[in-house]
Specification:
By secondary structure, the protein is an alpha/beta fold. It folds into two domains: about 110 residues, Urease, subunit C, domain 1, CATH 2.30.40; about 300 residues, TIM Barrel (Alpha-Beta Barrel). It is about 40% helix and about 25% strand. The chain is built from 17 helices and 17 strands.
Length: about 450
């Protein structure tokens, strides 16, 4: 009998494999961070003993969800700038405090945001970290990833902050050269840590020069990573691109090589049929951020049109300043509901499809489909245990439908990432959540004061 790190027994496994199999009464054998076997529980117990054994009798195991777009530092700005359009919201909630954020602020925000992700079934988060008013704030996010055990992609952002309000007297305005040098530094620092990856995240079309975008495409290819950019969020994207570059946003990204690099486009709310076909031509992935788009009053991304073209679409919370939480369970429900209303068709984006978008398609969106997104032998052991024996999810008819339309974070009982239990029975391992709450409340209030943000 082989002794391994973790056994999960008596479970019903939502595999999300190619056949979308549901295996009832099965278990997982996990060695280090890899699923090494999936069998009926009795067969599994005849072959393996576990350093830790989790009995998931009657419960369902889902692959860990992948949050394809986030801004973890925005946890500090929940509720600020509400009921305002994009530009006014950016000025109030982002630009005012931009130069005042410290490493401790970022670390606490990332920690709290990651905990909320983990509690709602997320095992991988793409953090689009564009708050760079001081050096090495990105390292604070990565430290939170490491301390919590979540799988993180640090999408190192760049924003031309020359015109941002300045209150601290210690402003650092990054150059494009600073940005590229830091991407290389971060890549070198974390390249041997299996749960952290580095991507490039120029903020939006108007924050970087044409040469800068060309360098982003080239560097992504050199580092074998991807670019991710807020794309066609509002009409301003194309208006700026046409005035500045003489072509549309998507044509500009084609011209500069961004489309030819690995590319995760975020939002795409203003996309048209011609542009959808161009995304398909270059195998561009798209991140759909339903809740934040609704709160800021965007148009919606026409998801079914993209799916009909065979474009990979993942889902995401977006940052907490434009969503007000990091709860992927809400995203699971609202993402298809908005599409059903938009198309006036209840059959659009069925429950299985949105779970695919959160798992296997999400993995594909971040170029990790071979490692993540489904529960299969040889893949990473990232999953959560769904306990449907709660009033909100009873009675159970279809576990996938129940997860999408009825569940909340209280149904996520246990979360395992890279073979390690990071949350068990609803409790994050090694974290005093009450003390953390008190700490981030006082830290945020101090930051708001430094940034001339009125405290209610």
């Amino acid at each position: 009998m082989e002794h391994i790190d973790l056994l999960v027994i008596n479970a019903n496994i939502i595999t999300m494999n190619a056949n979308r199999e549901i295996l009832k009464g099965y278990g997982l054998a996990i060695k280090k961070d890899i699923i090494i076997d999936i069998k009926k529980t009795d067969d599994l117990l005849n072959e393996y003993s576990g350093e830790k054994v989790i009995d998931a009798k009657g419960k369902y195991i889902f692959p860990g969800m992948i949050n394809t777009h986030n801004h973890l530092f925005q946890v500090l700005f929940k509720g600020i700038g509400k009921e305002k359009d994009l530009i006014k919201w950016l000025e109030e909630a982002i630009q005012k405090p931009y130069f005042n954020i410290s490493e401790e602020d970022i670390y606490l925000a990332a920690t709290v945001g990651c905990i909320e992700n983990i509690k709602s079934g997320v095992t991988t988060v793409v953090d689009y970290q564009y708050a760079n008013g001081k050096p090495k704030l990105n390292d604070a996010v990565c430290q939170a990833f490491l301390d919590l055990g979540i799988r993180g992609i640090l999408a190192r952002g760049y924003t031309d902050s020359t015109d941002f309000p300045k209150y601290s007297g210690k402003e650092i305005v990054e150059t494009e050269e600073d940005f590229f040098n830091d991407v290389k530094r971060l890549h070198k620092k974390y390249m041997n840590i299996p749960t952290i990856d580095i991507a490039l995240a120029p903020g939006i079309i108007w924050v970087m020069s044409e040469d800068g975008f060309r360098k982003c495409a080239k560097l992504a290819n050199e580092l074998d990573t991807f670019n991710t950019i807020h794309t066609l969020e509002t009409e301003e994207d194309n208006a700026y691109s046409l005035e500045k570059h003489g072509v549309s946003t998507i044509d500009f990204y084609e011209k500069t090589g961004i489309l030819k690099s690995k590319f995760l486009a975020v939002h795409c709310a203003q996309i048209n049929e011609k542009e959808i076909k161009k995304l398909k031509k270059y195998d561009v992935r798209v991140s759909y951020n339903a809740i934040s788009n609704m709160l800021i009053g965007y148009k919606t991304l026409p998801v079914q049109d993209l799916l009909d073209e065979g474009i990979v679409v993942g889902i995401a919370t977006d940052g907490a300043a434009s969503n007000d939480n990091q709860n992927m369970m809400e995203v699971l429900k609202i993402s298809p509901l908005w599409q059903k209303a938009f198309y006036r068709d209840p059959a659009v984006i069925p429950a299985l499809k949105v779970v695919e978008m959160a798992t296997i398609d999400g993995a594909d969106a971040i170029y990790k489909k071979e490692q993540l997104g489904s529960l299969e032998i040889g893949k990473k052991a990232d999953f959560f245990i769904f306990n449907h024996r709660k009033c909100n999810t009873a009675p159970l008819y279809d576990p996938i439908v129940r997860l999408v339309y009825s569940a909340d974070e209280n149904n996520v009982e246990t979360t395992v990432i890279a073979g390690k239990v990071v949350m068990e029975n609803g409790k994050i391992i090694g974290i005093d959540e009450d003390a953390l709450y008190e700490k981030i409340q006082s830290t945020a209030e101090e930051l708001w004061k430094r940034s001339n943000i009125e405290i209610v």
